[in-house]
Sequence to fold (294 residues):
Amino acid sequence: MSNYSIRDLEHLSGIKAHTLRIWEQRYNIITPKRSDTNIRIYDDEDLKLVLNIALLKDHEYKISEIAKLSADQLSKEVIEISEKKNSYPEQIHALTIAMIDLDEAQFERIMHINNNRFGFEDMMINIIYPFLSRIGILWVTGSIGPAQEHFISNLIRQKLIVAIDSKSPSFTEESKKFVLFLPEGELHELSLLFANFVLRARNHKVIYLGQTLPFDELVYVCESQKPDYIFSAITTTPSQKDAQAYVTRLENKFPDTQILLTGYQVIGQGIETGTHTRIITHINQLIEVAEQKA
Fold:
C-alpha cells in the first residue's frame, strides 16, 4: 500500500489541497492519518475516495450530496458514469483506479472498450498518455510504489507489443529510417514503444534498440545504418544534471542526423540544442515528423 501527501491527491484528482482540508473539517468525508510531525498521510483507499468524489463533482454533484452517500452508493454512481460516458477523463479515472487496485480484469475491460471506441492510436494519445503524465511525477518522487508502477507499465507494454506486431513492413519512397533507443541505465520504455508503433504505422523503417543501450553501440549502429533520425526518451537516466552533457554528446557525434528527444529529463529543463535536435513535448509532434513529405 502506498502513502500519499495532500499534494499528491491534488495532483491526481485536480481538487485543490485547500478544498480537501475544508471537506475534511466540514463534512468529515475523509480522515487522513497523521505522521509523527502531524503531517496528513493518505492511503490507497483515501486516494480512490477522492478520485471518485472528483468524478462526481465533474458531473455536477454537490459535495453536500456526495457526503451523504455510503461507500457502496458512491461506487455505484461512479461505475454508472464511467460506463455511460465516452469522454477521456472518465476513462483516465477508471484506469487510475485499476492501477491502485492492481485489477488486471478492469484494465483489460477499459482497454477493450476504448480501443473499439477510438482506435489504438487515439486511445494511447488521449487516455494512456495523459494517465501516465498524471502519475509520472509520483513515480519519480516515490509516492506510488514499484508494484503499482510495474503492474500498469507491464500491462500497457504488452498491449503496445501486440499492436507493433500487427504492423507489417510496407516501405515506400517516402519512408525514412529511424533508430530508437534508450540511454544506458534507462528502463522506462513505454514512450519508445509507442514511437515505434507510430512510425511503423506510417510505413517508416525502424531499428529498435530498446532499453539501456551503451553509447558505443549506438555509434556502431548509426555508422553502419545511416539513419535519417535518432529518437530517444530520457525519463530518469541520465539525471537532470547530466542530461545537457548527454544531449551535447549526441549532437557532436551525429551532426548529420536529425535527433528527436523526449522525456522528463529534457522537457522544460532548459536544455540547449543545436539546429538538428528537437525536443518532443507531445506525441503529436512526432506524428508531424512521421507524416512530413520529402
About this structure: The first strand starts at residue 33 and ends at 34. Residues 120-141 form the longest helix (22 residues). The radius of gyration is 22 Å. The mean pLDDT is 88.
